[in-house]
Amino acid sequence: MELSDRKKKILQFVVDDYIETAVPVSSKSLTERHLSNISSATVRNELFALEELGYLTQLHTSSGRVPSAEAYKLYVSDLMVKDKLSVKELDYIKKIFLEKADNLEEVIKSTTKIISELTSYPSVGLKSKDSGEKIENIKFFRFKKDQALVIIVTEYRLLKDNYISVPEGMTDEQLSDAEKVLSNMFSGKNFEEICNLKPELQDDFMGYKNIFVNVIEALKVYLQASEGDVVMEGEDKILQHPEYADINKIQNFLSVVTSKDKMMNLLTEDGKDIKINVKIGTDGYDEIPADCSVVTATYTANGNKLGTYGVIGPIRMDYQKVVAVLENVGKVLESILSKR
Amino acid sequence: MELSDRKKKILQFVVDDYIETAVPVSSKSLTERHLSNISSATVRNELFALEELGYLTQLHTSSGRVPSAEAYKLYVSDLMVKDKLSVKELDYIKKIFLEKADNLEEVIKSTTKIISELTSYPSVGLKSKDSGEKIENIKFFRFKKDQALVIIVTEYRLLKDNYISVPEGMTDEQLSDAEKVLSNMFSGKNFEEICNLKPELQDDFMGYKNIFVNVIEALKVYLQASEGDVVMEGEDKILQHPEYADINKIQNFLSVVTSKDKMMNLLTEDGKDIKINVKIGTDGYDEIPADCSVVTATYTANGNKLGTYGVIGPIRMDYQKVVAVLENVGKVLESILSKR
DNA sequence: GTTAGCACTCAAAGGCTTCAAGTGCTAACT
DNA sequence: AGTTAGCACTTGAAGCCTTTGAGTGCTAAC
């Protein structure tokens, strides 16, 4: 059933006011603030109807109304007026990115910092391990007799955190030869393609199968590793919001938020083409507490998904602000990432 | 004035009990738990004397006694009985270090994780940028026309986070030649010595002065950079302690603890030979709230200070446990770090 | 369909009393 | 001199009651 225009308007005001004040909204305050042309009794009738429809709830009979998860959903999809950032805020975004945006790690850190700062919610960033990008080059740097650092250059970045063990007796010349062979073999392929290469089918190994196997092994471990790519910022900002006045709630929230695994799951989305993804209440994600919302966005470069960033906070979240910040950050990110 | 043996004993019991229960300690509970041979009235007289001496305070006339900062200091230096870890705890330490201790970053992360887990306080780790170690080797990896990654091998670790810009028109051969020249020049020196090299006095540059200057510049930036080397773990553990039942206190604590600058200052010690460093209350360190304590230790390998690790928590901290954990972690660390 | 009016509900705040833990002091005891 | 029993005194914490006022739902009139 479609809501009447007036019901929509009233629901919007209720959500607006509740987000702003965190206090259950009464019929009187609605008429005073937004609806001076109708009486509070009329508003009460409408509120009653909206409650019947499942959009509003009451804590007790004589309290004002609070939006339900359904109401927030409708609010975000239909009712909410899009917010614009101030010039100051836009400048802040640019400033931070100017200071630190040399590589993907820094971009993510800057992103989370900006988002958390501007929205005053904890923010999360997740670097995709595999964005489907193509490998350009691979290089070994031997720093001990039996160990070498693997450096991989891709379209967008430099991977330099993988190590392989070098077979005993292998000379430096052989290793640099292996480097050339593998570089040739890998170049132009993406990670998935490389990991699916069957060593037994390749006859251009020139005797470097052992190195190949080690590299693939290291890559697989790297791609699977779950921790370490989640960045959080401003966890303590959650304390500023009145719904977290209770130690148990804080504890519960922080225990979830500091668990990198759970955050990974939450952010690793079936990345459809949606630009901004809003999860309100549990929504079937049992990783987060039922009274939380998560708003995320993805950054992509030429169709490759480089990562996810977003905000986690109470269901009574300032969606206008959050969406505006994410959108603007997204725009700046796009220009930064496509610059290279 | 030296305390009588009985006063010391009583003060020890008061601190023990207060650390355990977080409840002001009464004369009655002392006689019941520890001093069945004397009466509570006698204990009261002693408590009164200890209060006069500044070791104990009362919240109000009819409450039990709480140790003062002075009392904690005496407790740690003189009164406290050293704790031993259980086999389970020792195994846990070994297990974590076995899993992750390949490089200094991982060692620090593992350290903070272990400490926070075993003590249930937030823990901090700080990697020294310059431990006085000697450089063995330097290598360039060019990944763009005008940019190269600088890899530096030292006695203890591999630095691979510095980049230099490569002068226009420099060929790969010239770059690898420069690599040899600089490697020769740097090898056996420590960072300080290298940064003090005067380019105008070196005549073995063979024309690579520009690269030299770039490398030194990058190194100086790296050595000065303040953030990024502080690792924290278990910030949320602070919520488990009853003194942080108040949101404002939590907020205050977290705002300090999440400020990497402040943590840096706190951990960057005039590293004397003290193995374990205990700061109780402010102690003149205005970085931390007055009701906090910080216990730290340094890890060194062959006289080089590789970093600092420790615990930050309420002044009513379980010093026995914390000191025991830090000491044991220290022992394992020593064996790990000197293995290489 | 709208609105004034009114009875009803209920959490929050304040005041009051009671309770119990704990001290400090005094006087007696060893 | 040091120790102890006994007791008056202090004080926060807990429980109970009342008051207050914001807010609703319903009814009857417009």
How does this model look, in words?
Two copies of one chain form a homodimer. By secondary structure, chain A is an alpha+beta fold. Chain A has three domains: 5-79, Winged helix-like DNA-binding domain superfamily/Winged helix DNA-binding domain (Arc Repressor Mutant, subunit A), CATH 1.10.10; 87-128 and 229-338, Beta-Lactamase (2-Layer Sandwich); 135-226, Enolase-like, domain 1, CATH 3.30.390. Chain A is built from twelve helices and ten strands. Chain A has helices spanning 5-21, 27-33, 40-52, 69-79, 87-99, 104-119, 172-186, 191-196, 209-224, 247-257, 260-267, 319-339, and strands spanning 56-58, 65-67, 123-127, 135-144, 147-154, 158-165, 230-233, 276-280, 292-301, 304-314. In chain A, helix 1 (5-21) packs across helix 4 (69-79) and helix 2 (27-33) crosses helix 3. Chains A and B meet through strand 4, strand 5, strand 6 and helix 10 of A and strand 4, strand 5, strand 6 and helix 10 of B. Chain A binds a DNA duplex (30 and 30 nucleotides) through helix 3.
